[in-house]
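ok so i was messing around last nite and threw this chain in just to see what happens. nothing serious, just curious
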Amino acid sequence: MSLEKEATLRALGAEIIRTPTEAAFDSPESHIGVAKRLQQRIPDSVILDQYTNLDNPLAHELTTGPEIIDAIVSDYGSHSATSRKSTGMVDVLVVGAGTGGTITGCSHSVKAHNPDCLVIGVDPKGSILAYPDSLNKSTDSPIYQVEGIGYDFIPKVLDRFAPTVDKWLKIGDEEAFPAAMRLIKEEALLVGGSSGTALAGTLKWLREEGRSLAQTEGKNVVVILPDGIRNYMSKPWFLESATQEKETTLARVIKQALEKND
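result:
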C-alpha cells in the first residue's frame, strides 16, 4: 500500500496495520487473517469483506455498467445525424481485476445490453486470477508493483469464466507503467498503474486478436480506468518518469526564445 493511501486513511481517522506482502491470503499474518482476528476480538466490529460480499459486483451491475451504457447510447444519439458511425452499443469492455466486483458486475450489465459484447479481463503477471490457469505461469515473479489488481487467491465475488469474462490477458509492470504515463502525458488523465494495465491490455488485444474489430468503423471499445495518480506520486515508477531531465520539443523552443536578442 502506497504512503499516500496510508496518509489519506490516517487523516480520515483510521488506524493502519501493515501486513507482509508475501503472506499468503489464508495466513494469519495476511491482511485478511489480521482483519478476521480483530473482528473476533473487538466488540461490534464489522468486516465489509469486498472479496465475498455480493453487494460488490451488484453495485457495479446497477451503477457502473448502466452509466457506461448510457454514455454510449447518448453519444450515439448525439452523432446520429453526422458522419460519425457508432453501433450504439458496448462492443468490447476491458477491465482489470482485483476483487472481481467491477468486471463481474459490469459484464452482467453490458451483456444484457449487448449479448455479443466481448468482455476482456486484464490480470498482472504474478497474479492467479486469469483463466485458464495455464495463463498464470509459475515462471512469473509473484511480486508485482501495480496496486489494486491481482491476487494470489480467487475472490468469491469474481466470476472469471465465460460468459461473464470471455478472455483474459496478462500484463507485466514493464507494460503497465509506461501505458499509465502515456495516458498522463498524452491524454492529461492522471491515472495510476492499474489503469496502465488496462490500457496496455487493450492495445495488445487490438493489435493482435482484435485487429479486425479495431479496423471496423463505429465499434465501441470501453476501457475502465479505475485509479488516480494521487495515491502513487511517491512511487519510483512515477517519479523517475515525471522528473527525468530530458529535453523536450517545448524545452528547446523556450530555450531558443530566451536566447534571442531583444
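not much to say yet. The radius of gyration is 21 Å.
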